[in-house]
Amino acid sequence: MVLGNMMNESGQQYVAVKDDKNTWRILDTWHADLKMLSADDDIPDDSAAVIALSEGQFIALVKEAASLGVLENANFGSDIDTSELEYEIETKDIKIQQLEEKLSNLTKEKNVVEKAASRSEEFELKEKAMDNILKLVSMQDMTKLSRD
Predict the structure, then answer these.
(1) Mean pLDDT, rounded, of the chain
(2) CA distance 118 to 128
(3) Strand partners, 2
(4) Domain that holds residue 16
């Protein structure tokens, strides 16, 4: 008995199979090319009875069939109203912007605090006093050099 005759008797014209490389093969079981094959023969990919589709192509085909109403009970979306999702996204975007501003302000405050913490008022006064002493000593040395 030949393969084509067995396929015709099954009553199902098309069979889809996915392999381990995410390639879908759709076989037209009623195609004339299959009548020449025996039950032990492999059906080559280049046969006119085989259509090979990538995973993305297959998904696009199924979605289009569902949107046209060809598939019964096909639901690829959710029951959530998109206006609710848009509102939630907008709310989250505003929250993100507020948090980014808060983070920026905290970073600025941290920099001010770090500068203030690194030098106390007493340290500043001592530093000015040392600078003045160095200036006086330098002026005194210059005076000595000019007299000699």
Answers:
(1) 80
(2) 16
(3) 38
(4) 3-68
